[in-house]
Amino acid sequence: MRTFIVVGHKATTTPNFSLEDIPGTSGRLDILCRAVTASFVISHGIRKDVCVYLVLLGGETAKTILLRGESLRHLNPDERTTAALLKKALALTATAEWAMSTSGIFVRTGGFAELLADLKDTKLVYLREDGTDIRGLEASGLSGETAFILGDHTGMTPEEEALLEQAGAKVVSLGSTSLHADHCIVLLNWFLDTNVFMPV
Amino acid sequence: MRTFIVVGHKATTTPNFSLEDIPGTSGRLDILCRAVTASFVISHGIRKDVCVYLVLLGGETAKTILLRGESLRHLNPDERTTAALLKKALALTATAEWAMSTSGIFVRTGGFAELLADLKDTKLVYLREDGTDIRGLEASGLSGETAFILGDHTGMTPEEEALLEQAGAKVVSLGSTSLHADHCIVLLNWFLDTNVFMPV
Lengths: 200, 200
Description:
The structure is a homodimer. By secondary structure, chain A is an alpha/beta fold. Helices cover 30% and strands 24% of the residues of chain A. In chain A, helix 2 packs across helix 3 (79-91) and helix 2 (29-40) packs parallel to helix 6 (181-194).
């Protein structure tokens, strides 16, 4: 299982945003929509072995949406239909327990600390421009069982970085060009597909 | 200069499509929008050294849209605003000469054969799943001066493949997993950024 975690610091936790202006009305949920597409969508199919957590911190109470490739339905490659799926998940009354919205999409209350606590037995890799070059990681034993953590356009906060350090996350860089989260995910999927740099 | 060419076999040549349903009303112009974003957008900026040709074959008369990073303005990372820029370009009366729509975006009539004729002095690389593995290309002298050709969800036609063969295009594969055009472009940009596989 490949896991991608994307933290949306301003991302709305309510369904009250407009599909006609996702970037302007949802706290940049568009970034998370593209991350979802990059994680799952291949030509004529969905990656079954992928799992995505979207951590939404732009509301009064943080929420996390989980998408599981093995049961995910109705995901199209365009941004708007992905946003519509997330809107539906955010319309559910969320509690601290996962509740299913549509097939393969789940939601609960809770933010980044809660998620890291859940993943305490998973190897964590935090993507940051000044981390260890990913091309040097051949012998490090990274694999598809790793959870990759990506920030949004605002990066990660010092508090989140402290949590990652405590959790033993490895800080890894994809190069000096600062890329959007979805583009990082495309690269990570390809590395895992082709076993370049990161033997499984 | 990095050049990406994406052929949209069903893509509309008129502005008469809905921004509320791009995939359903534009002949999958959404695929080309995402290819544009993947070509140009990095965190907090636009790649100046990139040039994109979108070949639109879903109308009575083929049209080609050219986007040049050095002068491109108003491009946001979301799909809808990219589609709005293309809509504007398609509203211009196109002739066989390039005409500017908004800054950095140009349009003309003409399809794939005309474009290949224009690029007759450029090295061409055609991306196809069964091509030569890109990881074996280290010594081949591919560089940022190459034009990379990608199909849409329908692939390329036998006629287009014949044109590519005539033009001496190298057929290259990114691996056995069949990826969307925009994801291929993310990978190609990264290879060129990091000088992996393809020395510049």
